[in-house]
Amino acid sequence: MTMSLKSFEQHLIESAKRTEALLASLLGDSRLAGEIARPASLLAAMRHGTLNGGKRLRPFLVQESAALLGGDPQVAARVGCALECVHCYSLIHDDLPAMDNDDIRRGRPTVHKAFDEASAILAGDSLLTFAFDIIAAPETRLADRPKVELILALSRASGIGGMAGGQALDLAAEKSPPDEAGILTLQAMKTGALLRFACEAGAIVAGSDTEDRQRLRTFGQKIGLAFQLADDLLDVTADAAIMGKATGKDAGRGKGTLVALHGTAWAEERLATLAQEAIDLLAGFGPRASILQQAAQFIADRKN
Q1: Where does the pLDDT of residue 252 fall: very low under 50, low under 70, confident under 90, or very high at 90 and above?
Q2: CATH 1.10.600.10 applies to domain 5-301
Q3: Where would a tag sit more exposed on the chain, N or C end, judged by fewer CB atoms within 10 A?
Q4: Interstrand relation of 108-109 and 104-105 (parallel, antiparallel or unpaired)
Q5: What is the pLDDT of residues 294-303, one digit of tens each?
Q6: Where are the chain's structural domains?
Q7: Nearest 5°: CA angle at 126, between 18 and 187?
């Protein structure tokens, strides 16, 4: 890897700014063809839950995976925004009193606190639907087949067999903590599925062959595991002000995590192993994979 950590972080910041700008445009006041109106209060709630900073890691992974394989950067940017809409919908709904009951997200009031619960539910519903609108729209200049592949893959990553199912398992874990296999399944679904999609989506955008698509998919699985493990460590060790959200929640609710099961020393060692496995997966691409390899290390080393 040739890019320094500081250079990588600046690259991530610049990418996040571009994603934020495109999201702001997509969530603008002007209605699209076929839309009857964009209710101002609902749009405001959607924007509050989406245009609130963050690393925009998932769009970044879509864009860098596509770039690695020669994909169109404008298409990758739109697909990345679609994925970010799904991610932000999940955060809005996860924060609701019926779910994780959080008041702060990225240092600001959560949507149900800034607006109300009904607005938060509708904002999440609208963002989820809008994600597939973005991919299907003619402005996303892809042939029909890769568009269908993207829609199918994102549906599978988001729904009962992916993120939403993972959240259901997470809620159940508060009542009956799972064993290690159950924890790994839960985390692969709730957190890992969208990160896996982010990397695979770049390969779909680029029209890559099955081997490269599978390699990026496996890379996404590795960094998804690393991301959740890092998150569990931060929940134990980080300060809420740095995180921009409440910490210590897992222990407070009696949830089973790999950190609780094996301890922080084991988790830190496992994180390092996952990062190296992800880095090694992309070694065959040579120096052009350095940004994605640095992303794997960044995920393992992150402090918020």
Answers
A1: low
A2: yes
A3: C
A4: antiparallel
A5: 999 999 998 7
A6: 5-301
A7: 75
